[in-house]
């Protein structure tokens, strides 16, 4: 199998093709071309890139691949061999898309890539235009019965609007595209419209956009040649998008970043066992049925990093054991077992001890909170509010200190005055004798 850093890809001119398109696009924008071509939304980029391919004389060849795909009927033998990929099963990238098996009627078996159907079905069943979703007060992520439906619909709006062409990272997506995703989600769901909710929507969209591109990158690596990749177009991707991604994933710049990221992932030693279920949903499911209080960070970490008594990794177990020892030392007067402590009402002290143990055990220098999922990180607005509250607390403490100092001063003056009066009385009594 050829890997994506092989010479075959570099000789194809992938870097040059991408640079030529970017130069053409910049000229188009600068000259205010009358063809009304844009590169904001996904459909805009498909139309614009198609026009560039037409001008370069490359569109006919790419369209031929689409014609081939349209006329193709996979056989059972092709399905069993991952649709004619020459990659052995052991080398097939774990996140790469595989062709799904079909029934005799041509219907695909298994869950597809299309999102949002569950939300439509629920709205029809409940006759409600807007569905409700809860957010975990501890971790910030969506939770409850409609959690998966909510996330799926965020993903649907993200994929419909966010471009794959001309974008390297989520930060490259234009603000008007991100705003459109937020507005569509807000229109479809009964959730509070505030900066925190909007940031959560964008965090979910950001995380799933990275996953979407990672899946497409893995699919690119699953096939050894450009021709095979183009013939195996991923579902819900336009043929010109797939051509662009072939250019991008084959570029030297992307390969360099990809190798570095792969190396970093191999060094990750703290692994959870929750699959696609977010920590916020797990925390919500583990809440106290009477009080509604969600578990503390230690209990949540144990739940998300172990299964049937087996830890996901030695590092995960070491973190938990270190936190348990630290907590036991700090609460030496507590004779209860660690297990009973973890199932009690969580305290801020326990959470701080766990975070300290995590950082000491792993050696991480990151200041963010660990073991709680990506949505637990505070939003910018929440950070601002926390800073304001902290400043208010500091001002209040200063006021109390000043008031105490003034009270102590008055008390000292009163005490001194009383002492002087006592001495004067004593002297007068002495003189009278």
Bin the helical content: 55-70%
**Annotation field: number of helices:** 18
Shape: elongated
Low-confidence stretches: 1-12, 75-84, 336-343
Tell me, rounded to a whole number, the average pLDDT: 80
Q: Structural class of the helix and strand makeup?
A: mainly alpha
Termini Cα gap:
117 Å
Tally the beta strands.
6
Could you state the order of secondary-structure elements as H and E?
HHHHHHEEEHHEHHHHHHEEHHHH
Rounded Rg? 31 Å
Strand content: under 5%
Oligomeric state of this protein: single chain
Protein name: Transposase, Ptta/En/Spm, plant
Region (Disordered): 73-112, 359-382
Pfam families: Transposase_24
Biased composition (Low complexity): 84-93
């Amino acid at each position: 199998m050829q890997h994506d850093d092989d010479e075959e890809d570099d000789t194809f001119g992938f870097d040059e093709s991408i640079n030529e398109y970017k130069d053409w696009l910049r000229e188009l924008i600068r000259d205010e071309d009358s063809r009304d071509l844009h590169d904001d939304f996904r459909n805009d980029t498909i139309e614009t890139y198609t026009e560039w391919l037409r001008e370069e004389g490359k569109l006919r060849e790419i369209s031929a691949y689409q014609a081939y795909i349209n006329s193709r009927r996979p056989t059972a033998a092709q399905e069993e061999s991952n649709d004619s990929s020459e990659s052995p099963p052991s080398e097939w990238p774990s996140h790469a898309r595989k062709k799904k098996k079909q029934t005799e009627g041509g219907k695909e078996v298994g869950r597809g890539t299309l999102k949002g159907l569950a939300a439509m079905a629920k709205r029809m069943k409940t006759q409600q235009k807007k569905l409700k979703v809860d957010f975990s007060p501890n971790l910030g992520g969506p939770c409850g019965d409609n959690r998966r439906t909510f996330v799926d619909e965020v993903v649907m709006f993200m994929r419909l609007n966010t471009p794959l062409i001309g974008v390297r990272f989520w930060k490259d997506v234009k603000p008007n595209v991100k705003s459109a995703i937020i507005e569509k989600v807000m229109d479809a769901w009964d959730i509070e419209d505030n900066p925190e909710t909007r940031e959560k929507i964008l965090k979910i969209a950001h995380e799933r956009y990275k996953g979407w591109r990672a899946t497409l990158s893995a699919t690119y690596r699953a096939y050894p040649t450009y021709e095979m990749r183009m013939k195996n177009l991923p579902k819900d991707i336009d043929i010109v998008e797939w051509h662009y991604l072939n250019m991008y994933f084959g570029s030297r710049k992307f390969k360099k970043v990809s190798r570095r990221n792969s190396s970093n992932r191999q060094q990750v030693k703290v692994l959870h066992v929750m699959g696609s279920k977010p920590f916020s949903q797990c925390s919500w499911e583990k809440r106290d049925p009477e009080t509604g209080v969600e578990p503390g960070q230690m209990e949540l970490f144990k739940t998300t990093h172990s299964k049937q008594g087996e830890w996901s990794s030695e590092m995960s177990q070491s973190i938990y054991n270190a936190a348990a020892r630290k907590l036991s030392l700090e609460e030496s007067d507590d004779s209860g077992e660690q297990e009973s402590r973890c199932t009690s009402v969580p305290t801020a002290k326990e959470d701080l001890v766990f975070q300290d143990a995590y950082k000491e055990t792993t050696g991480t220098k990151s200041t963010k909170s660990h073991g709680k999922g990506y949505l637990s990180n505070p939003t910018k607005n929440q950070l601002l509010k926390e800073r304001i509250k902290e400043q208010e607390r500091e001002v209040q403490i200063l006021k109390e200190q000043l008031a105490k100092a003034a009270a102590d001063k008055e008390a000292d003056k009163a005490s001194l005055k009383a002492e002087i009066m006592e001495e004067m009385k004593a002297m007068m009594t002495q003189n009278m004798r």
